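Dear support,

Our group has been running a series of protein-ligand predictions, and this particular one with copper (II) ion is the one our PI (initials K.S.) wants archived with full inputs and outputs. We had some confusion internally about which version of the output was final, so please treat the block below as the authoritative record. The input we submitted was:
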Amino acid sequence: MGDQSTGWLPDPMSTFAGEVDTLFYFTLYVSTIIFVAVMAAMVYFGIRYRRRSETEVPEFVRESRILETTWVVVPTILVMIVFTWGFKVFVDLQTAPPDSYEITVRGAQWFWEFQYDTGVTSANELYVPVNRPIKLRMTGSDVLHSFFIPAFRVKMDVIPNRYTSVWFEAIEIGTYQVFCTEYCGTNHSAMLATVHVVSQEDFDAWMVAQDQDLPPAELGERLFRQYTCVVCHVDTSVGPNLAGIFGSERELTDGSTVIADEDYLLESIVNPSAKVSSGYGLQMPATFGTMSQKQLDGLIAYIKTL
Amino acid sequence: MSATAQDASINFLNYDKSLKSWLFTKDHKRIGLMYLVAVSIAFLAGGILALLVRLELLGPGETIMGPDQYNQSFTLHAVLMVFAFIIPAVPAVFGNFVLPLQLGAKDVAFPKLNLASFYIYLIGVVIAMSALLVGRIDGGWTFYAPYSERVGDSILYVTTGVFVMGFSSILTGLNFIVTVHKMRAPGLTWNRLPLFVWSIYATAIVQVLATPVIGITMVLLFLERFLSIGIFDPALGGDPVLFQHFFWFYSHPAVYIMILPAFGIVSDLIGTFSRHRVSGYLFVALSSVAIAFLGFLVWGHHMFVSGQSATSSIVFSLLTYLIGIPTGVKVLNWVTTLYKGSISYKTPMLYALMFLFTFSIGGFTGVMVGVLGIDIHLHDTYFVVAHFHYVMMGGSVIAGLGALHYWWPKMTGRMYNERLGKIAATLVFFGFNLTFFPQFIMGSRGMPRRYYDYLPEFQQMHQLSTYGSWVLGVGLFMILGYLLMSLKTGKKAPSNPWGALTLEWTHTTPLPHPHNFTQTPVVVRGPYDYHLVPEMFENAAEDGSVKSVHDVSQPAS
Ligand SMILES: [Cu+2]
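Confirmed final output from the archive:
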């Protein structure tokens, strides 16, 4: 991944990340200087004026108007500088250039889905061309999520029934981490995605490759990974291991049994709470119901091969 | 002296030792102690959960629990710490115990109401915790809609509990406001009030004005749930961002319920242990009240990336600074109080100085997250987690520990072990910083909060943080241990072990029953005017305690 961090922040990889960083370090250093000075004064006074005898009573010290005025005025000035600066950066972060390339983002428990102008969709893998402003129009399908790319210094909440947006322009080819930063349930910490910043040619080539038809089982394998089915069904035991499930007899929480045929698998994916396998909870989200028939066929074909 | 030797052996603790006399007491001192026991239990439970959460994060993936247990653990940790511990802790424990004493009053204005608030608080806690019996507590202490509404009925128990606890907070606040206005001893003018009183007064204002809003929010959640009218849930046509506005409209001022009393404590501690008038007394006093009011206007700074309008974000950011400045100036005032003072390093003072260190870091990082452009990156990362722990734990809890050691002799009649006290304070200091400082670093590198699992590059920082939590844990358990021990084996406390000048030390010793003062005190000087009574310290003992208290505290003429 391209997220290297040498200091406090990951290396800046978008056009305005550098500006955010300068502001961050300015605030950090000014704060540190003041903090160290105040602590030094505290330690110095603490040693110099430690109590030498229990009967000692110090003299009254008159408060100094000049000192008091200084320490109200100086911080106020500093803070106003930082505020105005922060305001400027904020406005830059808010205003996407008019020629931005738009991608639609959908946040759902617990994956990110990206839809491009060509109709191509991908999950948890975002491809963008380098050196080109990208605007993400984002909405959610269930609860709140938040879309965060540390290397680009962008973050925005994703809200159901409403569009929010972020924009960025990546300056270097590479792959970068996406996090969900608004708590959204069981797999919140697995709601990750990768941004692939590629050259315009590679981007176009990728787009063409997406349009080609894969054999269903291969498509299914990819979706199984991208839509985070692996997180519950392979990496952890939140959901049952699906190996050999096709054609087997499944016991349900209500005590009945069913044969896991294709219809059962389809129903399990689209409407997981309809038939719940015994020994498991209701963690599987209903968000996969919005997948296309082709995608669902692919998933089922893949599960049959397990 | 009107008090005879025989009277002196009877005090508020031992005049009647039956359980009933405790449960039905209207004595503010006993109520304060009952609160102390209750919030300590909440703190212990919340603390153990915190240790478990940190242990889980020792390595990526599953360490000791699965994702669902983890999510419930951090939620329960936060709910306990915020609603059952820190909001009631300082105002209800020390406010109850100390406020009437510092005012020279025989009790709070409405003693029965005071007892009622205690039981309302207990009922609230029980309701909230019964959620564990019906389901899970999930969604974080912020209960953001619509997630919290999908968790199930159990969340309604929590919100009802919070709603009920809110009433306790409101009633306590009202009681204190009236007490401060009506029950001050003769001569105790507003500019002679100890700063602790000022801060409790400011806190009470926030309690009374802000708490109803969380009540309303919880009622709206209820209505949405049972009548299916869309308020917050987008699936019903509601607006989840509205919930955040409601929530923070209470919860930001609530931050001041947590921190303002700490300002008061630290002022009293620094004044006492440096035998010096707190520099900028008037500023420190009035700015607390100003902060209490301004605190209502900055809630939107929690929502810079929530989808609220850019204009609101800008206004909220600006107002946040306005409130930051007086807070910073207070720190400078405390430091200058040390100048030319006579500084004694008893355990409570160690906590006060520790507070200056940790709270300042909390304050500066607060400025950083208040800067719009930077907050976009830092919001909802561990940077914020570290920031608010530096404010709430490094601020309120550290000050609270100082207060506990400071008033312990008054509360229990016993001295704690000073040496163990200093060792524990050192452990708390290093443990605390080791736990939370690495979180600033991983947060600014992008580590999001409320994550069960994390990428390998964050492991080093997580490990440091977990090790720190162990040191901190040892320090805190040590305090629990030696304080409990002191009840049995502690030295009998002298009447004024710290040589303090406020009324609870100078006029009541030992704390009698049924009234706080055998005769109404008359106040002739400010709470920290050490330079006016040098003769009081002429016979000070080796440990700094002052014997002939009544001689100097009587009216001069
Ligand atoms: Cu999410």
